[in-house]
Design a protein that fits this description.
- By secondary structure, this protein is an alpha/beta fold.
- It has one domain (4-321): Glycosidases (TIM Barrel, Alpha-Beta Barrel), CATH 3.20.20.
- The chain is 24% helix and 19% strand.
- The strands form two sheets. Strands 1, 2, 3, 4, 5, 6, 7, 8, 9 and 10 form a ten-stranded mixed β-sheet that branches. A four-stranded antiparallel β-sheet has the order 11-14-13-12.
- A hairpin with a 6-residue loop joins strand 2 (41-43) and strand 3.
- The longest helix is centred in the middle third of the chain and has 18 residues, at 209-226.
Length: 387
């Protein structure tokens, strides 16, 4: 897939795990918060190419796709052969997500999922890091230590932690307000588990001038603490508003800037009008109505380069998942049409839709547009799927 002026391309692909997932539940707003899916990310600007994925979970549902080498409820090691096979397609994987407490310390989300007795030595010395969101230390499945030991058959797999995710305003503010505590906690995790770096996936609603300056200062301190050999990635939304002066400072400290070019429209957002999930180019036929989102991957990448981000550091993230809409009339293949959220089926990994029709019923009519996006429509079920 072409990107702007040498920009790298990241493919958030469900095909990597041969999973087909449609419509995230509302609590999984960010793509990489889908329950236990790896997303392939291909970067082609420089050799060797970057092939990156995330491992993420929501609450106790991690058991649907646990990290190979973690423990089941009986205390036995889990062999996730599917995951191990897929690692051979990758050279980088991120563990998502850690959060940042009010003192600026990066902490695990759920100790019963992330940690096990194998982490006791680390946690005795770093109690604040191991206390989870519930302020508990209840080691159990040990997905994180298992993650740290993952490897592919070419021994080229780099492992990083991802901090933040959707709705991470508070974690971001905690980090930039307590820089020393944050970078020290990140360094301790990276060093102890022999990891290769960190992905900062902070997604505040608005980057104020204070936040921009704070982010630049944090990244300077983080690079100084981790050293030049560790990977630092900054992940931003497609419509980020960081200014050129701040981007210059940020770009100097990071290896990659990951542009989240997806989730432009979804059945969980208003207005209740269908739209592209991730269109490469702008479509001037989009409806000009209040609150309707207008952006494209091309526009987002060009904005980053205009602001001074080096093209060879930009990773364009695009999805290979689809979003289903229900109650859509067969007008313009269902594109830019009203939908009914109550009639919209929800599909997710390990969850079967309770509605009569599945995604296979939707994929019977295809319209591919010059905007490098497509829509599928099934008139008898009044369902459409946007990619």
């Amino acid at each position: 897939m072409a990107a702007a002026d040498g920009a790298m391309v990241e493919d958030n692909s469900y095909n990597l795990l041969e999973r087909s997932m449609i419509n995230k539940p509302h609590y999984l707003k960010h793509i990489i918060q889908f329950i236990f899916c790896l997303f392939s990310c291909a970067a082609f600007a420089n050799e060797p190419k970057l092939l990156m994925s995330y491992w993420s979970y929501h609450d106790k549902s991690y058991s649907l796709y646990p990290v190979a080498g973690s423990f089941n409820t009986m205390g036995f090691r889990i062999t996730n052969k599917d995951m191990l096979d897929k690692l051979n397609y990758l050279n980088m994987i991120a563990y998502a997500f850690l959060w940042v407490d009010p003192s600026g310390i990066a902490r695990f989300t759920d100790s019963s999922v992330d940690l096990s007795y194998l982490d006791n030595a680390f946690c005795v010395l770093n109690k604040n890091i191991c206390l989870d969101r519930h302020n508990l230390y209840s080691p159990g499945a040990g997905n994180f230590s298992a993650f740290s030991l993952l490897q592919n058959n070419t021994h080229s797999l780099k492992k990083i932690i991802s901090v933040g995710g959707a709705n991470s305003d508070q974690s971001f503010d905690n980090a930039i307000s307590n820089v020393d505590n944050f970078v020290n906690s990140i360094e301790k995790i990276v060093a102890h588990y022999h990891l290769n770096g960190v992905d900062l996936d902070f997604e505040p609603d608005n980057f104020t001038l204070e936040r921009m300056n704070g982010y630049a200062n944090l990244l300077f301190a983080l690079r100084k603490k981790l050293g030049s050999d560790k990977i630092i990635i900054v992940t931003v939304s497609a419509d980020q508003n960081i200014n050129a002066k701040s981007w210059k400072k940020i770009s100097e400290q990071v290896n990659y800037v990951s542009d989240m070019c997806y989730e432009f429209h979804s059945p969980f957002n208003q207005p209740a009008i269908t739209g592209y999930n991730s269109n490469l180019y702008a479509d001037f036929n989009e409806p000009l109505i209040s609150r309707y989102y207008h952006i494209s991957c091309d526009q987002s990448i060009k904005s980053l380069t205009f602001l001074g981000v080096p093209p060879d550091k930009i990773v364009l993230g695009y999805p290979s998942y689809a979003l289903a809409y229900g109650g859509v009339k067969n007008v313009n293949y269902g594109l830019f049409q009203p939908f009914n959220q109550k009639e919209t089926p929800v599909f997710d990994f390990g969850i079967k839709s309770k509605r009569k029709n599945s995604i296979s019923h939707c994929l019977t009519a295809i319209k591919i547009r010059i905007y490098r996006a497509c829509f599928f429509y099934k008139e008898t079920h009044e369902r459409c799927v946007g990619i």
